[in-house]
Amino acid sequence: MQPVYLDYNATTPIDPRVAEAMLPFVHEHFGNPSSSHPFGITAKQAVERARRQVAQMLRCGADEVIFTSGGTESNNYAVKGVAFAHGKRGNHIITSSIEHPAIVEVCRHLERKGFRVTFLPVDAHGLVSPEEVERAINPGTILITVMHANNEVGTVQPIKAIAEVAHRHGILFHTDAAQSVGKIPVHVDDLGVDLLTIAGHKLYAPKGVGVLYVRSGVELEKLIHGADHERNWRAGTENVIEIVGLGEACAMVHENLPAYHAHLKEMRDRLEAALRERFPHVRFNGHPERRLPNTCSVGFRGLEANTILSELSDVAASAGAACHSDRVDVSAVLTAMGVPMEYAMGTIRFSTGRFTSAAEIDRAVKRITEVVERLQPREAMVPVISEREPIRLTQYTHGLGCACKLRPQLLEEVLRRVPPPADPDVLVGVDTSDDAAVYRIDHSTAIVQTVDFFTPVVDNPFQFGVVAAVNSLSDIYAMGAKPLFALSIVGFPSNRLPMWVLEEILKGAQSVAADAGISVIGGHTVDDTEPKFGLAVTGTVHPGRILKNVGARPGDALVLTKPIGTGILSTALKQGMLDESGSEALFRVMATLNKGAAEVMESFEVHACTDVTGFGLLGHLLEMMKGSGVSGQVRASAVPLLPGVLDLATGGVIPGGTQNNHDYTAPYVAYEEKISAVQRLFLNDAQTSGGLLVSLEEEKADVFLKALEAKGVASASKIGVVIPEGSHKIEVRE
Description:
Blueprint: E1 4-5, H1 16-22, H2 24-27, H3 38-58, E2 65-68, H4 71-85, E3 92-96, H5 101-112, E4 116-120, H6 130-136, E5 141-145, H7 159-168, E6 172-176, H8 188-191, E7 195-199, E8 210-214, H9 229-232, H10 240-278, E9 283-285, E10 295-299, H11 305-311, E11 315-316, E12 318-319, E13 321-323, E14 328-330, H12 332-337, H13 341-344, E15 347-351, H14 358-375, H15 408-416, E16 426-428, E17 437-442, E18 445-454, H16 461-478, E19 482-492, H17 499-516, E20 519-527, E21 532-541, E22 556-560, H18 566-574, H19 580-590, H20 595-601, E23 606-611, H21 616-628, E24 631-635, H22 645-650, H23 656-665, E25 669-671, H24 677-682, E26 692-697, H25 701-710, E27 717-723, E28 730-733
């Protein structure tokens, strides 16, 4: 069954009537509107007809309508256009603290260019006070920009009153009406605005087209330079197909707005009434009356929005907060409104649309109720009992694997305040950022101890157990030790997942333990909000043969035994963007023990070794270089990648942990100019169950690689060399 779509504030489908109007311009009427022959004239007439349709809806002159590529461009043109055209008169801009990033980021950019920006507060309902606007005005104020209706909570601003304030002081006023068009009346003569933004995809027109209304007489500096298209307001051949679609969508709004408004409100009210009946203590955000008819922002106390949405796979909606391992990112809108954290972190925005039916609302309410009731804390947790239907474990967690690690910056700060142990038998502790702790028992034996656990990086429970166990054992192998036994560490949401899932996870871990020649002989469990699993592994090593992540020497070769990219591929898997072959490749590399590589290292003089996990290749190399008092030189082209990583990273599939790693290593890394932004990110990709990074004599590198290949470690590669310490700890070359 098709999921219920309740995210119309994010985007709308193209209305069939709009699509029908566009179709002739896809195949038949393909001319350039600037051409004087019949093909061009037909296209030009279509553009001008669309312009009149927009003008009729806005109640403005057709010559005041400029077609753009969307709401973001329109907002940029309005704000920058006023700023640079009127900068000699003043450099002060007033906006609100709840604007869309397409306004906020433009204002931040202008601040860096010397403009001053006032971000006005809002009240508990998200309303901007016209009196606050007037108090913020100074002699240098040249523009006020306040959105018509908020995209998250739906609050409709007193635009007419703010416009009157602006004009009383001779200041231009812009409003971003992307969310309001098609839901409430948007008439520029009534609102009194000088500039107004429309985004096509918010009103059942295609993506990639928008409008900037510019009142006659308003002067703007051009944003895009070139030929004199759009009466010399905006250069670039007109996007005829989408402009036709936008025009038709505006015509439909002009004809049917009262009916659209009534339907949106009926569906939204039906949803809110049902939620209020089932959950009397929920919080609805936004103004109770001055609100878009389709927008429902609701906070479920004590729950996390991402957790709710991860189980609402059959209802499409948006979260008002994102919860991470070290912080909760609440939206700027909810923060500005002062929504209490216990509600803000559990806020979800549902937005109804033209095609929403009562049956869909009822189906959505049923699913929301099931999920929220299951997640709400109870005195006695009721385990989930179900048949062995397929489970997608990555949908039950916020983060993924080792990408869930605390940011290295935060961890370093905490550990600096913790005194190191003074016991002389502690051979490896927290002071070297090594993979495991080592404690001397006698002159020939030392205990190696490590613990590692994380949230799912694959969907299959058995495979999750495999990957978690392989990852935990990797720390032992990286120290040159042999594992003896392991204990399980389990966090399990028994109110969200059936117990057979835990059984499969444990079986997966046991299969890896058997391959490693050890047993899992116990463990500890807690009931948790999301699944987590790992092992505490105990091993032994001779005190004189410990491999550490310090000791690398200038002239050493750097060898990596597995390809990187597991963080990016795991994120793609969670987002449903990874095909079957990609999923198999991801699991295969994460399920491969580093046992073979460790056995090969026994025959070589290894100067330093670490396994590459959550801090990424460059993060773990940085630890090695810092501890060794040297620098490293990496050839990006030599670093082995999992299939599809480059394409996915280029498409923006980047885990938060990877971005954190990049930010952390950036001050220590000198990238060659040829190294792209995408390459820099995947070199910092947060790995789960990654390979070993080995530093050994350059002369032995080729023999080492051949020995690894003979042992079945086929993807090992020499990725760089160790050099004397320089101005940067790491140099990355092409």
